[in-house]
Specification:
three-stranded mixed sheet, alpha/beta, eight-stranded parallel sheet, binds 2-amino-3-ketobutyric acid, EC 1.1.1.103, L-threonine 3-dehydrogenase, mitochondrial, globular, single chain, NAD(P)_epim/dehydratase
Length: 334
């Protein structure tokens, strides 16, 4: 008798929740391919489209849909969104801090004009839009230890200026027109299989490759330069959990997310626990050192913890073990 009442067909069916249809711009950078893999596991291969202006390597093509998309080409982007019935847009196209300083005009175009195209299309097509921001959105007059979500932001790089502009534009369009804009400020992201392209925090990836291949690394920052960092798997998980969070839980639209904070010297010491012969020399480069000195040394992410349950899994010890293991594994399989 009971089983009759518990059987599914006695309930009226709940409305079926459709999977999101996701487009990732700048998908061949450090973050896109890994994020697409995780999203495809949850939502299906065909529902996650990677895009970039570069030719994808064969493994990316066999993983799932890949299309050409230039964020500066509004019509091309619109066609992709409409034809593929996109509902979530993850906007990873951007020039990072160091390459941005080397080519300010291009950084302005991609990071600001490209973002305007994406914001307009997100509004027009009622998309949930994710745009990453960064520790680089802060500057020398910001509180640095820790940097809270809301404080003075006067960055001194075109990258930082474009990211603050993105945060403000997205929040403005959210408040004025209801755009479902979501933005996380990422720390430096550390990954074994994909390389960052032209950032200030890149040493924290290169150091592992050098430790495994040559046993020595020349660092372009001073040994005491402390910066917030995060393992890529925490970064991906934060992005997905934040995208899935119900709107009513979000008291902000731009959140800091934190995991660990270390100096090159501390990182080298941690690597030496596993590779005692490893040697690091320091040859600070004035452009990168000046940028790093203007950024926060720690992030306050208490709002992300409270509102949508953010919690990292990797500290420096776990991250170093994972990086050394993954890089060794990759080298033996090449
Ligand atoms: C960079 O160093 O430019 C980036 C960042 C922290 O946003 N990795």
């Amino acid at each position: 008798q009971l089983s009759k009442w518990n059987s599914v067909d006695t309930y009226s069916p709940l409305p079926r929740r459709e999977n999101p249809r996701i487009l990732i711009t700048g998908g061949l950078g450090q973050l896109g391919v890994g994020l697409a893999q995780l999203l495809r596991k949850q939502y299906g291969k065909e529902n996650v489209i990677l895009s970039d202006i570069k030719k994808p390597p064969p493994h990316v093509v066999s993983d799932g849909p890949f299309v050409y998309a230039d964020v500066l080409d509004y019509k091309n982007l619109r066609e992709l969104i409409v034809n593929n019935r996109i509902t979530w847009l993850i906007h990873y196209s951007a020039l990072l801090s160091v390459v941005g300083e080397a080519n300010v005009a291009l950084a302005r175009k991609i990071n600001i004009s490209g973002l305007h195209n994406v914001l307009d299309l997100a509004l027009e097509n009622c998309l949930r839009l994710f745009v990453p921001s960064t520790i680089g959105a802060f500057g020398p007059s910001s509180p640095r230890d820790p940097a809270p979500d809301l404080c003075i932001q006067r960055p001194r790089t075109i990258y930082g200026v474009s990211k603050v502009h993105g945060e403000l534009m997205g929040e403005y369009l959210h408040h004025k027109y209801g755009l479902d804009f979501r933005c996380l400020r990422y720390p430096g992201v550390i990954s074994a299989t994909t390389n960052p392209g032209g950032g200030t925090t890149d040493y924290a990836v290169q150091i592992f490759h050098d430790a495994v291949s040559t046993g020595s690394h020349e660092c372009y920052l001073r040994p005491d330069t402390r910066l917030p960092m995060m393992h890529i798997s925490d970064c991906h998980r934060a992005t997905i959990e934040f995208m899935q969070a119900p709107q009513c839980q979000l008291s902000l639209r731009t959140y800091n997310i934190a995991a660990m904070s270390f100096t090159p010297e501390e990182l080298a010491q941690e690597i030496c626990k596993h590779l005692p012969q490893f040697k690091v020399t320091y040859n600070p480069d004035s452009v990168r050192q000046t940028i790093a000195d203007s950024w926060p040394v720690r992030f306050d992410d208490t709002n992300a913890q409270r509102d949508w349950g953010w919690a990292p899994t990797f500290g420096i010890e776990e991250m170093v073990i994972n990086m050394l293991h993954s890089i060794r594994h990759k080298r033996t399989n090449e």
